[in-house]
Design goal:
With about 45 residues, the protein is mostly helical. It is built from 2 helices and no strands.
């Protein structure tokens, strides 16, 4: 699974600014998104 471009851009910006709070927030978003996508994919395969 590939990270969406908008999220990648936001992370790059946060890293350049050394904004730890933003980096953590975006990281959490990415893991939440990935986990949700994975569970959606699993449920599709089961049906």
């Amino acid at each position: 699974m590939r990270m969406p471009q908008w999220l990648c851009n936001q992370l790059m910006r946060a890293f350049l600014k050394k904004d730890r709070r933003q980096i953590r927030l975006l990281n959490d978003c990415w893991y939440f998104y990935r986990t949700k996508q994975r569970s959606d994919d699993d449920s599709v395969e089961l049906h």
